[in-house]
Design goal:
This protein is α+β, with helices and mostly antiparallel strands and about 220 residues long. The protein is built from 5 helices and 13 strands. Helix 4 runs antiparallel to helix 5.
Length: about 220
């Protein structure tokens, strides 16, 4: 049978972006990883930290594969040294900037979306809460970053989105784009936030001072 395999972030840099692989009919996801690691030995030491996704949902290493499956191998997406993913704690914007800015980058654009203390209708907001479909969100964020860096090849992009309760004044999402020139950095940054609003499976709930709450789609 044939399955499509994709690697993201550091795993992509160590191996491949996408490939169609032939495997025996009884193969499981772990067999696919072993085959990939055999072809790209730099992957071997990363297995303890990697999660697999099968057709858009997280899957075990022993999950059986079927003809036409789409399998993604994902590094950790919460915390650590990665530059895209989800976190349930405060976002370190300075660390995010440091992760992508390099000597060749003359422009660094940072967007921070914060929890504000009032809604568009004037009601006082006490806090925000973000509910996320984690099994898909990590892969979607990685795809968005990959698309941005593909459109602007000299640009490096990092994005972290917060989940759970976000106190007023704290960052809910941070996007950093670094490029040789400001136009690419601006364009890539805007592309990422618009793609997040359109595609990321995350929902915002606002809690108001009058005891009511409102849940709306999008970041």
């Amino acid at each position: 049978m044939q399955v499509t395999v994709r690697c993201f972030a550091t795993l992509r840099e160590l191996s491949i972006d996408r490939a169609v692989v032939s495997l025996p009919a009884e193969a499981v996801i772990g067999d696919l990883w072993d085959l990939l690691a055999e072809r790209h030995p730099a992957l071997v030491d990363h297995r303890p930290f990697v999660r697999a996704a099968q057709n858009g949902a997280y899957a075990d290493w022993e999950s059986p594969l079927a003809e036409g499956d789409q399998v993604a191998f994902l590094p950790p997406v919460s915390g650590g040294s990665l530059t895209s993913g989800l976190t349930d704690g405060p976002i370190d914007v300075a660390a995010l900037e440091g992760a992508v800015a390099a000597r060749q980058h003359g422009a660094l654009v940072t967007f921070v979306g914060r929890a504000r203390d009032h809604a568009d209708d004037g009601r006082v907001v006490l806090e925000l809460e973000y509910e996320v479909f984690e099994e898909m969100a990590a892969a979607v964020l990685a795809e968005i970053v990959e698309e941005a860096e593909g459109r602007w090849p000299e640009c490096a992009v990092a994005v972290i989105h917060r989940t759970g309760v976000v106190p007023i004044g704290e960052a809910a999402v941070a996007i950093v784009s670094a490029a040789p020139h400001r136009s690419e950095a601006y364009e890539a940054n805007r592309f990422v936030i618009e793609a997040i609003k359109e595609r990321l499976p995350i929902w915002k709930r606002e809690r108001f001072a009058d005891g009511t709450e409102w849940k709306r789609p999008g970041a």
